[in-house]
Amino acid sequence: MLIRNGTLVTADGMLRADLRVEGEQIAAIGDLLPYPGEPVVDAAGCMVLPGLVDPHVHIALDTGIYRTDDDWFIGTRAAAFGGVTTVVDFATQFRGQTFEEALASRLEEARGKAVVDYALHMMVTDLPPGKEGELGKLVAQGVAGIKLYTTYRPNYYADDATLLRLMRAAGALGLITMVHCENDAMVTEAIERLQAEGQTSLREHGRSRPPFAEIEAVHRVLFLAAEAHAPVYIVHCSTARAVDLVHEAAQGGQPAFAETCPQYLLLDETVYGGLHPEWYILQPPLRPAAERAGLWEQLHRGWIAAIGTDHCDYALHQKTATGSFLTTPGGLPGLETMLPLLYTFGILEGRIGWPDLVRLCATNPARLFGLYPHKGTLQPGSDADLVLYDPEPEEILTAAHLHYIAGYTPYEGWRVRGRVRTVMVRGQIVVEDGVFRGTPGWGRFVPAETFSPQMARSALG
Fold first, then answer.
1. What whole-number distance in Å separates Cα of residue 234 and Cα of residue 249?
2. How far is CA 373 from CA 222, 272, 380, in A?
3. How far is CA 152 from the centre of its chain?
4. Mind spelling out the 3-state secondary structure of the chain?
5. Predicted local distance difference test score (pLDDT) of residue 97
6. For the chain (length 461 residues), average pLDDT per consecutive 10?
7. Which residues face 388 on adjacent strands?
């Protein structure tokens, strides 16, 4: 297949060129003529992007307390409609499970259902002292990294000694550690105070997890990671100060990386006073509007390494079951809307450029989590994961026209520019002109390489 007349976008720039796909890979880029009988796709007027790589996704999530109603077909189909061709999800090691059991269970869930490719992090919840060598099995099995939490007691929470111990072991093995940073004691105190006051409605959610709880935990985790000589990736930064701390650590030579999400760039705490506070229950919660401005400025400066959606497709009936933030599952659907939102409110408003979007949403995630250059870039030999994005149409986002099962979108009624026209995963068209053409099971597990300091330096610019 030959894709002609489009504008190719990479993290390094933009180029008017043709692109040839042979089998599952990109074969050539340049001023190309079609072979006799070769299918030709006219991409005139379109941006040709590498398929997006979302480094932070929760498809078919089971927390042990709540479970989303989606599955790997539903989740990856939504990803495909949003131009996301690789998702990096999580295998959760529940108490008493081995890593092999946790990984095998997760891979079995995806097998025969995924329509885009996927890699996996491991949520480590049960690794006693002396068993750190078990992490080596994750390296051998191609797991992209581990995830730890400074909150969510008792099922996910890790104390400081455990954080330090596991980061030391992971760093020595070449595994990057992702950390959800909120000070558990501060969150607990805020929740207990609100309970005592009888203030547990969904409108109070933002007050239950104060910004300083995130900032303190980020500071502490960076300090521990430096002592452990471990690369660390701080997920879903919702405050500008959290990103400042990560940037300061990186400037000092520490392999530290900040992620933020579209919801923290586009939404703020005022929505909790609106008609549908249930649409916005997530951890960390949405922050004051000033934080949004700060995060956009940090994106512009290059201080944020990646954007992930933290996608979580809880259904509306789960979000409205109790009316209390104490018993409402946290998480928002976001896979399908990330690209049009970032184009509309990032590129068109001059906050970022097309190469920045590709760097943040494709190339850097692939570099940081051992998937580059197979994923996240346009170059000969890379997987033919491609998105043709038409920048001209206008659409209104509405849950009725999206492919989640949540029954809502936090961006209901928002007007966006542009449309995903064609999406390919390893050379197979999975979305074309709004029609799903994929095959359940076409998506495959992509084993990740270990963390590369050279790739990390590239991600930090």
1. 12
2. 28, 41, 10
3. 20
4. CEEEEEEEEECCEEEEEEEEEECCEEEEEECCCCCCCCCEEECCCCEEEECEEECCEECCCECCCCECCCCHHHHHHHHHHCCEEEEEEEEECCCCCCHHHHHHHHHHHHCCCCCCEEEEEEECCCCCCCCHHHHHHHHHCCCCEEEEECCCCCCCECCHHHHHHHHHHHHHHCCEEEEECCCHHHHHHHHHHHHHCCCCEHHHHHHHCCHHHHHHHHHHHHHHHHHHCCCEEECCCCCHHHHHHHHHHHHCCCCEEEEECHHHHHCCHHHHHCCCHHHHCCCCCCCCHHHHHHHHHHHHHCCCCEECCCEECCCHHHHCCCCEHHHCCCCECCCCCHHHHHHHHHHCCCCCCHHHHHHHHHHHHHHHCCCCCCCCCCCCCCECCEEEEEEEEEEECCHHHCCCCCCCCCCCCCEEEEEEEEEEECCEEEEECCEECCCCCCCCECCCCCCCHHHHHHHCC
5. 94
6. 98 98 98 96 98 98 93 98 98 94 97 98 96 96 97 92 98 97 98 98 97 98 98 98 98 97 98 97 98 97 98 97 96 98 98 98 98 98 98 97 97 98 98 97 98 86 72
7. 48, 422
Contacts of 363 (CB under 8 A, 6+ apart): 10, 11, 50, 53, 372, 376, 377, 459
Tell me the two tokens of residue 414.
């928002």
- The two tokens of residue 241 are 């100060």
**Alpha-carbon gap, residue 38 to 29, rounded angstroms:** 16
Pairing relationship of beta strands 306-307 and 386-396 according to DSSP bridges: unpaired
Residue at 454: amino acid letter: Q
The β-bridge relationship of strands 84-92 and 52-54 is: parallel
Q: If you count them, how many residues does the chain have?
A: 461
